[in-house]
């Protein structure tokens, strides 16, 4: 059978049978059939270096993770109503990476479910679901998580901000509302204004949610001191803080295992998703004892798949692999190298306006002299990099930020390859004229 025909048939069948709001990457979509660590292989045998997938945390089709899943699947898979050590082992292993205050876990199946549960916990604790969140933030695809995701309700097809959601300006120090001096304080003050507004409406503050690096917003690093100040303000108002670690957690930040640790704060609730199952759907909510106890008000929390022995076996192996292969250290080493090489490129290519991020969670932004976004060039760059066998993705409200968030098995050689081809594309005519 002709492989081009097979790809075309799949494309046609998708169009015919799947919802139109599902999108495909690339003008000419890829037909990927195999993963191998930080590489993906298409139906034609072409090999691509993957700088996009922060789900395949310990490498696509990681041998030990696959084996752990296969073995447990052959033995038993049930819900969590029987005693099984996989779930308690996973709870203990995760808690070991978290501050003491965070001592209770609930397991779910996706980042959206984790944030959904976190919001329920807030409601159970504060009797309020007035939620404060960042502009351009994304926290999931369910009703409530869409309702707190400005990335969605302010974007295409969105219906605007719901009444009980309160949005502060994205704390972007490069192209945001405030730049320059005292920036953390200025952005934190915006959060205080929202707290005051909620109080003026004679309502209580429920909680605050943010990612330690705002991913969909364009890899926006929070200014140092911002989170600490905001957490205190929320606490003073009687609200709870969620750290959405769905993208950045489990060692990706390099310097710290969790993103909130980078900002020296302790959230009331931490949501964990993507990397935990290395592609298998498992996610988790960690919270304080106090939060968990208020949530357990008599109503059972049942989740058919959450915390099943197979998912837990997989997650346990993911955590082991991170340790065994020193992947957090690797994220730091390779990430810092890549970031500094990208910073070097800014000297030669002025359209790279800003390079940012931590560990293997980086971004760079393409702008003209007036800091206006160059989304067409960003799209061009991504398609040219694909031609050279490197998968990259873009995001941000103006689609002009290239995100780099590969499997943590990414090597220095891989980073060099990315820089080599980036230079090649930046030297092309289309990229030169502003
Ligand atoms: N939070 C963040 C920060 C995310 O990036 C995502 C997914 N992109 C989610 C939550 C939702 O996770 P999921 O798609 O697993 O439901």
TrEMBL record:
Q: What is the lineage of its organism?
A: Bacteria, Pseudomonadati, Bacteroidota, Flavobacteriia, Flavobacteriales
Q: From which domain of life does this come?
A: Bacteria
Q: Which family does it belong to?
A: Belongs to the class-III pyridoxal-phosphate-dependent aminotransferase family.
Protein name, per record: Peptidase M23
Task: Give the organism, scientific name.
Answer: Polaribacter aquimarinus
């Amino acid at each position: 059978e002709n492989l081009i025909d097979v790809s075309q048939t799949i494309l046609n069948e998708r169009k015919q049978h799947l919802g139109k709001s599902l999108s495909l990457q690339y003008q000419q979509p890829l037909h990927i059939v195999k993963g191998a660590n930080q590489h993906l292989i298409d139906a034609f045998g072409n090999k691509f270096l993957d700088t996009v997938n922060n789900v395949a945390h310990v490498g696509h089709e990681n041998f030990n993770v696959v084996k752990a899943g296969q073995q447990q699947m052959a033995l038993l898979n049930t819900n969590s109503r029987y005693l099984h050590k996989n779930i308690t082992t996973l709870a203990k292993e995760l808690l070991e990476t978290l501050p003491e205050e965070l001592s209770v876990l609930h397991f779910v199946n996706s980042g959206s479910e984790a944030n959904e549960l976190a919001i329920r916990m807030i409601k159970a604790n504060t009797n309020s679901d007035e939620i404060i969140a960042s502009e351009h933030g994304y926290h999931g695809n369910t009703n409530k998580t869409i309702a707190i995701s400005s990335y969605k309700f302010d974007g295409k097809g969105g219906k605007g901000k719901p009444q009980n959601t309160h949005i502060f300006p994205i704390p972007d120090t490069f192209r945001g509302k405030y730049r320059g001096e005292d920036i953390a304080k200025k952005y934190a003050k915006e959060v205080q204004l929202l707290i005051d507004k909620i109080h003026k409406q004679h309502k209580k503050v429920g909680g605050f949610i943010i990612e330690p690096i705002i991913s969909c917003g364009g890899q926006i690093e929070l200014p140092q001191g911002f989170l600490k100040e905001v957490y205190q303000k929320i606490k003073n108002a009687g609200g709870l803080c969620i750290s959405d670690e769905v993208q950045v957690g489990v060692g990706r930040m390099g310097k710290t295992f969790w993103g909130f640790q980078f900002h020296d704060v302790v959230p009331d609730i931490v949501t964990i998703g993507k990397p935990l199952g290395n592609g298998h759907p498992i996610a988790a909510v960690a919270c304080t004892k106090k939060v968990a106890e208020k949530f357990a008000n008599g109503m059972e929390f049942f989740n058919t798949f959450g915390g099943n022995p197979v998912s837990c076996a997989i997650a346990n192996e993911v955590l082991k692999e991170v340790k065994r292969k020193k992947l957090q250290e690797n994220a730091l080493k390779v990430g810092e190298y890549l970031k500094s090489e990208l910073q070097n490129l800014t000297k030669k290519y002025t359209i790279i306006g800003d390079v940012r991020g931590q560990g293997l969670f980086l971004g760079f932004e393409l702008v003209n002299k007036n800091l206006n976004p160059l989304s067409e060039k960003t799209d061009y760059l991504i398609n040219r990099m694909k031609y050279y066998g490197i998968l990259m993705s873009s995001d941000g409200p103006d689609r002009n930020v290239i995100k780099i968030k590969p499997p943590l098995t990414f090597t220095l050689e891989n980073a060099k390859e990315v820089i080599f081809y980036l230079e090649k594309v930046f030297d092309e005519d289309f990229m030169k004229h502003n």
